[in-house]
Each structure stands twice: as structure tokens, then as C-alpha cells.
Amino acid sequence: MSNPKKSPAFNAKMSREFCVNHETMRKLVVEDLGMKSYKRNNVHHLNDSIRRKRLERCIQLKARFAPGTEDQILFSDEKLFTVEEASIRQNDRILASRSQDIPDSIKYIDRVQKPLSLMIWAGVSADSRTNLIFVPQGVKINSQTYRELVLEPEIASAGEKLFQNHPWTYQQDSAPAHASKVSQSWFREQNIDFISKDEWPPSSLDLNPLDYSVWANLESRACAKSHKSLESLKVSLLSEWQKIPQEELRKAVHQFRSRLTSVIHKKGGYIE
To answer: Which helix (H) or strand (E) holds 134?
Structure first.
């Protein structure tokens, strides 16, 4: 069985350790052995109980949503965006003959301990997207604010606006505001089909299209450069949200069932 190395700089490191030309090492690893480097990811620890729940609930969700029915799901999530420039380390590369030739303004991305930030909520489906909802500064998301900011203005009319009154299902994770009796009861009172707190797998950022695809896409667009104010960040987020091609959202949503399958194959473990 192959043992893929995880460091993005693995080939260069191996070249130094074995005193072999970098290109020779690249050909040996990539062309001769058919291996490639993989990024190491930080994830929450999954104990046996969480792994079992992930496995059981993925099996149930896969049975509930037959192939093609993922188009009927409205996936939702919240995310904190800051005024700082987005940085995807493995993709941020600068071509130069020497490191010393790179100006500091390009070489380094300034970071502060507590940058200005905005919390937003959004929902996506294969054929639509919601408005971005900005959580007011200083407001904590609880059952009441979730209902007032998200459920009543966006979700109550989503069946008509986003799904043209066809059958649809609302997805949310098990955050306290989502899992509360008040929030869960609201969906039943509104006759809206939803994935309940006992159905969605715990610790499952790898199963929500917003988490495994859409948020990073939006951040790379809206925060390509740092912002001087929250208003500038807000304007950029609103603009770039509408510019994301629907096809990209559709591709992310269409990964949902295959990701359920992957988690099942890994017995509830994380997937990339």
C-alpha cells in the first residue's frame, strides 16, 4: 500500500536529505512512483462516540436523499470574515530569483491579534442562493436572533423564492441556536422539511458545501486585498457573493452524496 507524504514541500525536503537534484527527486516520486504531496489539515478530534454518530447519520442521510435529490437541499452556515487579506498558504507563491529580492510589502501579509470582523449567514442550493445576512455587531446568535435574522426573513419564503414551491429541505448544523427546541419547533410549525439536530452528523464541516467549498471561494474573492473598514468588507462580500457562478455552487452541492459515501467508507472518519 502506498504511503502518501503530506508535506507540500516534501520533494524539496527529500532532495536535501538524500543530496539528490530536486528535479530528479520530483521525477522519481511523481512519475516513477506515481505519488503526490498532500496538505495536512487541522481538524477537531473525533472520539469513538462522534465517529459512530457520523457513520450512523451519514448512512441515514444517504438513504434519505436518493441520487439527484441533493438539488432539493438548501445548505446553510455562518462564518466570520475579517478585514484582513485572505491567505491560502499552499497557493500563495511568489516567483523570484532570491528571497531577498522580494519587497516586504509583497513578501509579508500583515496580521493583527483581533482584526475587525463581520459574522454572516448564507444558504446555497444547486440552483439558487440566499441573500447574505449580516449579524449586527455585538449581537449573539441565539434562538431568538436566529429566528428574527434568518428564519423569518429568508427561510419562511425560501420554498417559493428559491424552489418555486417544489419539495425542498433545509439543512443546518447542530449549533445551539439551531438545535434549540424553539428553532426545531419553528420548522414543524411552518411545515418546512428540515434535517433535524438528531439527523445531521456532528463535527461535519466536511459535509457542508459552504464549509468545504463556498466560504473559501467567497473569501478568496472578497478578501483578495485587505479592507480599511467593515463597510468596505461588507460591500466586497455582497458584490462577490453575486459573482460566484451558480455552476460552482452546483458542483459543490453535487459532492454531498459522494462525501457521505466517503465518510461511511472511513467508518465516520474525516475526509478532505
So the answer is: strand 133-135
